[in-house]
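Before relying on records like the one below, remember that each one covers exactly one chain. Contacts with other chains, cofactors or solvent are not represented anywhere in the record.
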Amino acid sequence: MMTTDFEALGHDLQLAVGRAIHMRQRWRRHTRFAAISVVAAGASAAVAIASGIGPDLQLDPTKWTILGGGNVDSGRGAYVHATNRQDGSHSTFLVEHDSGLPAYQSFLLHEKTLAAAETTSPMPVRVEKGELCTPSALTRAESIALVTLRSAFAPGTNLDATRSAVDGALASAFAASPCRGLEYAGEQARLVYAGREPQSKLMPGAQG
């Protein structure tokens, strides 16, 4: 959930005030890199700049104070909690090695890593409602997201410009039966529509 440089990553991970938790996903060499940030009261933004995602997560020590971390599936998924030295905001960085995994297995790895990170977070975080999305629910969510994108945006539209519309469409479609993974589905669809990821990263039933 990356072909991007760290300058672009820093821009993409700017967080709006008022969201209790916010996740961005990009890809770098078949490795998913994500950040969950809990914005401290009064902080205008938290900008995540990573010095590398080698074995396994490295953050610039002049910008971040490491609070702890952990891993799942023998290190296939890992996370680090950190505090921004400049504004005091808290972030959790995830890395997921999902190269070669089927789409739903990539989703399960992400959710397992995310759940471990949420459980150990030093700050309260917002957790999606419902049980984990089933394969059919995840497929439906990605399909709805793509229909929404095609109806309102040109292919290649910037991810930030499409988030609100996709999130709104998914919230409406799943209002009666929300499941954990809708944010993931929307993000995956937006990444593919923006040309940042191949269609093979979507559930098979949502491709095409």
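The longest strand covers residues 64-72.
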